[in-house]
Amino acid sequence: xxxxxxxxxxxxxxxxxxxxxLVLKADLAENSAVRGCMVIxxxxxxxxxxxxxxxxxxxxxxGHVNAYFPLFIPKSFFSxxxxxxxxxxxxxxxxxxxxxxxxxxxKGVIVDPDAKLEEELxxxxxxETIIWNTYRNWIQSYRDLPILINQWANVVRWxxxxxxxxxxxxxxxxxxxxxxxxxxxxxxxTRKMLDVYAEFAEKYMAVPVLKxxxxxxxxxxxxxxxxxxxxxxQDGKALQAGTSHFLGQNFAKAFDVQFLNKEGxxxxxxxxxxxxSTRLMGALIMAHSDDNGLVLPPxxxxxxxxxxxxxxxxxxxxxxxxxxxxIVAGLKDLGVSVKYDNSQNKKPGWxxxxxxxxxxxxxxxxxxxxxxxxxxxxxxxxxLTKETVSVENIAVYxxxxxxxxxxxxxxxxxxxxxxxxxxxxxxDEFKEKIEVGGFILAHWDGTSETEERIKEETKATIRCIPxxxxxxxxxxxVTGKPSAQRVVFARAY
Length: 493
What we know:
By secondary structure, the chain is of the alpha+beta class.
């Protein structure tokens, strides 16, 4: 494995290749036999499970419950909300038949032409339509509201150009779909869930994010407003890490979902939807990792500590095993996830390289001299530094070290973003600076024409209209027309 690690392309040489190398070599995922789809391998899925478990707890703390809706959506459902169908029409996978049969020419199986569906089914690209058709049966009165439901699922959006975790034809995600009696309640829900995503990104992923609104041209298909969190990757490109949508009454009107209010009058329901996906895995990799491999924040690492024994014979190993058993128990008592790798088919040097590649936050190593001195070597993945420490109170030492690593990883990402965020006033300067990468704060006149021109000429998009920060009016850098505030531009994934 040490040899393979040397083959990891450096970030400075080719960032895209470094990313692909890392996903494959760290055993996170691989391409599958199905074009555009991936296999998430056990180590990668263990990280996704950590993400999923934490987010699920946060959703439930805010009153949401989980449910599950069908994978297939009748084609007619998409016709009911015009903007929605227009937004997803080019990405839909369509089921047209329900049976195969043997090829009469002996060439395997073919689609039975007599088994055509009366109505084609769409493999869900998102679930608004099937869910709102269902909610019509659940909602009659204001007493039935709010409905706060989340779904963990897979979706399909047919992609021509794919990248593991960042853009695949099938991916895993969660989608929240809520129904409310008032506009104010639905809008508050939209912001609340964006705040949940931002808290998760910063507190658990150690990724600083900007919160803001999307421009009309970048909104979710069928939404009145889309809010987002935007993260900056080490190559200076932005990555949209989560979105929350205020859908107004669009889907309620499309599917005739009405309720009797407290005054006995019929009203259309107000709605939201919000989601994050396995793209978060891509953000986690690209925000923190280095040329030696993954750097994982302790809160999302499949195991936070690995212990490697260094020995010459079975007798020495048995002595170290006995000592390490107490260390493992002490760590687990403090809620630290730990792996003791005393496998005898790989040398310690191989293990060191393997766990460095896989981003394990803390590596402990114990040899016979450590055993005699009641010490152990502790190496931290984020700084690649190590020190020899006493085994006494090692569990408390490691727990504090993990907390420091979590803080340090966030601080490093935050400082990088600060360095890569600039303000420009002229379009010429913008064109020059966008080549370097990073977030650029600039004035925009609010028109889709100017937004599209900038995108065509520079490949930069408006990532968000930020909620926080300076709100000073100015003049559009392109047209000179009035601008209410600066917006955030970047090239993006």
